């Protein structure tokens, strides 16, 4: 029996490359049925604020697999990217991108005789992609970076499982926990906690800037790397560059219920409609999808035909030997079809699964899942940060803050852009019109939430309050950052 999946053609070059890939699937007798869903720019334009029809949402939630072409997010209309929304709403928490050198695709590394084979697992839901941003003053925008223990654990466990399935010897965690001690700190701490369950895999961590340098200089040092969302986004495009560009970068967005397979590249508006786009990235994504669905024989024979075709020097206009004529999208697909059953010179791939195969399609949850890792943690309120708008000098702001102090609080410090400016600071620190005033309980004191909001309310009589943030202790551990210089 054929399994049904949802397919969205996408915008720009999307319909052209999707047609090429589905033609290859058909030639290989892939046992899939397709339900085409209405998603993309024209549905934004038609007034669907999420960029898809209700019917499309229902179909994808019913079928659990979406194979999609790239989609354009209309600019300047205040709408969010449909690609990001789809990943977040359906909790496809792990973004897996496999990068490897392909014969026929020349890069500086292949020319130097170096083969690249590495996998990036990027967290796909959290981080700055929450898109929670506010203007605190006309000059100051603030974005929230959300990193959670459950979200980190989901993607990190996925990465270790993937490494185990592929028989990898090592997994690295890329991070910036030296600067973002709490957010990246949670990610890194979770990484080493979960690593204990996989003793056969060598776990290490690396600061993301060092990682970028090492990936460019010595990509062979790494087998797989797991990262938070934004850092993973940047590092995976860097890796696409190592193996020949975005035209060769597949992407799988894996969730427990719904998974989305797509190319990394966008709609390529500059070449859309010309029939010359390179379908390889979408084809590689489709091959990952076949493996995920347990169609491993199909996956292997299409991959071998693709590798053989590339090795023969067949290429679209965006890569390959400029001295040999390029083929168009359809010509490229036809060449792969003609080569089904052939193997590249290194013997090619065998039918092994890359992903945990999805066999259970009966997954319709009735409630939202909610995870709390330690419900018994002891929480105490240590104080409150009140963010205010002012163009006064730090000493003057301290005077206003002191005028509203009560015996529940002490005035600890004032910072501007994260740098302490009161009680000590430097006159050389340049300021903007937004300060953070930190109040803490005195030794032995106790605070309630109401106390914290009340001091902020009092302060609002003499200065504009932009925002309030609790200072918490969790089992006695400080749950907030200190100011530079504090
Ligand atoms: P892009 O990836 O569409 O194009 C960048 C360059 O790469 C262009 O020169 C393009 O011609 C080339 N290119 C991309 N894919 C190619 C292919 N398969 N074959 C040959 N050449 C290819 O990036 P962009 O121009 O920044 O974005 C265009 C649109 O795509 C934007 O609306 C963006 O929001 C959207 N986008 C969507 C996704 C997605 O659906 N997942 C991802 C990225 C960008």
From TrEMBL:
<keyword id="KW-0329">Glyoxylate bypass</keyword>
<dbReference type="InterPro" id="IPR024084">
    <property type="entry name" value="IsoPropMal-DH-like_dom"/>
</dbReference>
<dbReference type="GO" id="GO:0006099">
    <property type="term" value="P:tricarboxylic acid cycle"/>
</dbReference>
<dbReference type="Pfam" id="PF00180">
    <property type="entry name" value="Iso_dh"/>
</dbReference>
<dbReference type="InterPro" id="IPR046997">
    <property type="entry name" value="Isocitrate_DH_TT1725_C_sf"/>
</dbReference>
<dbReference type="GO" id="GO:0006102">
    <property type="term" value="P:isocitrate metabolic process"/>
</dbReference>
<protein>
    <recommendedName>
        <fullName>Isocitrate dehydrogenase [NADP]</fullName>
        <ecNumber>1.1.1.42</ecNumber>
    </recommendedName>
</protein>
<dbReference type="InterPro" id="IPR040978">
    <property type="entry name" value="Isocitrate_DH_TT1725_C"/>
</dbReference>
<keyword id="KW-0816">Tricarboxylic acid cycle</keyword>
<keyword id="KW-0479">Metal-binding</keyword>
<keyword id="KW-0464">Manganese</keyword>
<comment type="subunit">
    <text>Homodimer.</text>
</comment>
<dbReference type="GO" id="GO:0046872">
    <property type="term" value="F:metal ion binding"/>
</dbReference>
<comment type="function">
    <text>Catalyzes the oxidative decarboxylation of isocitrate to 2-oxoglutarate and carbon dioxide with the concomitant reduction of NADP(+).</text>
</comment>
<dbReference type="GO" id="GO:0006097">
    <property type="term" value="P:glyoxylate cycle"/>
</dbReference>
<dbReference type="GO" id="GO:0004450">
    <property type="term" value="F:isocitrate dehydrogenase (NADP+) activity"/>
</dbReference>
<keyword id="KW-0460">Magnesium</keyword>
<comment type="similarity">
    <text>Belongs to the isocitrate and isopropylmalate dehydrogenases family.</text>
</comment>
<keyword id="KW-0560">Oxidoreductase</keyword>
<feature type="domain" description="Isopropylmalate dehydrogenase-like">
    <location>
        <begin position="4"/>
        <end position="336"/>
    </location>
</feature>
<dbReference type="GO" id="GO:0004449">
    <property type="term" value="F:isocitrate dehydrogenase (NAD+) activity"/>
</dbReference>
<keyword id="KW-0521">NADP</keyword>
<dbReference type="Pfam" id="PF18324">
    <property type="entry name" value="Isocitrate_DH_C_bact"/>
</dbReference>
């Amino acid at each position: 029996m054929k399994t049904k999946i949802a397919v969205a053609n996408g915008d720009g070059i999307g319909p052209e490359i999707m047609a090429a890939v589905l033609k290859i699937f058909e030639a290989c007798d892939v046992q899939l049925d397709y339900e085409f869903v209405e998603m993309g720019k024209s549905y934004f334009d038609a007034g669907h604020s999420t960029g898809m029809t209700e019917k499309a949402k229902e179909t994808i939630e019913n079928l659990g697999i979406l194979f999609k072409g790239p989609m354009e997010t209309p600019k300047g209309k205040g709408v969010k990217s449909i690609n990001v929304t789809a990943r977040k709403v359906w909790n496809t928490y792990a973004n897996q991108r496999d990068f490897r050198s392909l014969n026929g695709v020349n890069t500086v590394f292949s020319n130097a005789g170096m083969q690249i084979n590495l996998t990036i697992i990027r967290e796909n839901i959290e981080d700055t992609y929450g898109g929670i941003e506010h203007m605190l003053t006309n000059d100051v925008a603030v974005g929230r970076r959300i990193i959670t223990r459950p979200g980190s654990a989901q993607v990190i466990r996925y990465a270790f499982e993937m490494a185990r399935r592929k028989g990898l010897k090592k997994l690295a965690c890329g991070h910036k926990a030296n600067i973002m001690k709490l957010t990246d700190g949670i990610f890194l701490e979770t990484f080493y906690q979960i690593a204990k369950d996989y003793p056969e895999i060598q776990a290490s961590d690396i600061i993301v800037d060092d990682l970028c340098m090492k990936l460019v200089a010595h990509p062979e040092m790494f087998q797989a790397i797991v990262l938070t969302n934004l850092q993973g986004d940047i590092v995976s495009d860097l890796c696409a560059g190592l193996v020949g560009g975005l035209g060769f970068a597949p992407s799988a967005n894996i969730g427990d219920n719904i998974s989305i397979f797509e190319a990394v590249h966008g709609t390529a508006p500059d070449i859309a409609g010309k029939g010359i786009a390179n379908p390889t990235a979408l084809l590689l994504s489709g091959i990952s999808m076949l493996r995920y669905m347990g169609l491993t024989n199909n996956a292997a024979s299409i991959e071998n035909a693709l590798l053989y075709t590339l090795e023969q020097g067949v290429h679209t206009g965006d890569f390959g030997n400029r001295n040999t004529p390029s083929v168009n999208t359809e010509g490229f697909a036809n060449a792969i079809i003609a080569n089904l059953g052939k193997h590249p010179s290194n013997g090619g791939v065998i039918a092994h699964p890359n992903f945990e195969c999805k066999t259970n399609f009966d997954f319709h949850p009735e409630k939202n899942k909610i995870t709390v890792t330690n419900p018994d943690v002891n929480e105490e309120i240590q104080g409150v940060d009140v963010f205010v708008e002012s163009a006064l000098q730090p000493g003057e702001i301290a005077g206003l803050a002191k005028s509203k102090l009560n015996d529940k609080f002490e005035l600890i410090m004032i910072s501007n852009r994260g740098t302490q400016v009161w009680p000590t600071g430097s006159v050389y620190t340049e300021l903007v019109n937004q300060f953070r005033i930190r109040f803490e309980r005195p030794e032995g004191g106790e605070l309630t939430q109401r106390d914290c909001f009340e001091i902020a309310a009092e302060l609002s009589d003499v200065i504009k309050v932009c925002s309030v943030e609790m200072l918490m202790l969790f089992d006695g551990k400080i749950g907030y950052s200190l100011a530079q210089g504090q």
